[in-house]
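User: I'm writing a tutorial on reading structure tokens. Could you give me a worked example: one chain, its sequence, then its tokens, then a sentence or two explaining what the tokens reveal?
Assistant: Sure. Here is the example chain.
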Amino acid sequence: MKDKFFIDTNIFVYAFLNSKKEYLKHTAAQNLLKNFDDKNSVIISTQVCSEYYSALLKNKINDTVIQESLKKIIDNCSVKPIKKSTIITLFNIKKRYKYSYWDSLILASTIENNCTILYSEDMQHNQIIENKLKIINPFINT
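And here are its predicted structure tokens:
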């Protein structure tokens, strides 16, 4: 079975935004995303799409530009919905690992979709969740 990777919102946001302040993260995010050539191995949830849209709006990016950018993302990833079972799983993860509701929802989506790695800046680097998922912060050396 081929590994599946879940990409958190912040990776896409840094890949899109190119500011002097965050140049190293921008470059690292773009390089990470270039490494994935199989659409079926890269998973995101509908939550990631919504958070991405919201983050770019807060950065005053034109709505049409955001839509075009998000279309490219969803064309290159497998987008999975948030289901009732995802929410039930998040409750258990939140209680056990003490992450926020939103981070626990990302973790629940990741596990539900049988991903082995979650790329995120927001959680503990190298932490293993439920003995099957590893969190990787791709910005750890930036």
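What the tokens reveal: Helices lie at 9-16, 23-34, 46-58, 63-75, 84-97, 101-112. The chain has one domain: 5-136.
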